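Sample pair:
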Amino acid sequence: MGFFDEVVPTPQGSAVPTQTVALAGNATLNVTADGIEIKNDAGNPVPVSGTVTADSNRGNVSSGSSTITTGGTSQTVFSPTLTRKYLLVQNVSDTDMNLGIGYTPTATTGILLNKNGGAIVFEGSYIPTQAINILCATTGKAFVAIQDS
């Protein structure tokens, strides 16, 4: 079907080509539908053409990746933010870590991030807005943390 992903039939039997476009930033798309006729309430044809402007505010990714500064002491990875849209924290060390979302984790109350790749991801309809804190028993152990806010 060339440029278009699919053709959607209308109740009147016309075929309307559609296209899904993923944008990595701001863009203006010029859309023209030749040969398609839409009628207004009075039955008069209305031309189909126009401009669609898509403003993408996604992709404001920040890193909180680091190492444990003091073993046995919780440290803040990210401060609270109401605009967080994505959160990933991964333990890339050889020692277990504990995560606290809105609280200071301990070895028994935190969310366990297993050594060698244990991770947690929040996306979609639930992303916590509270502070993100991490704890590890050993100084110098690495973790990866990214958020989109």
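The chain has two domains: 15-54, 61-148.
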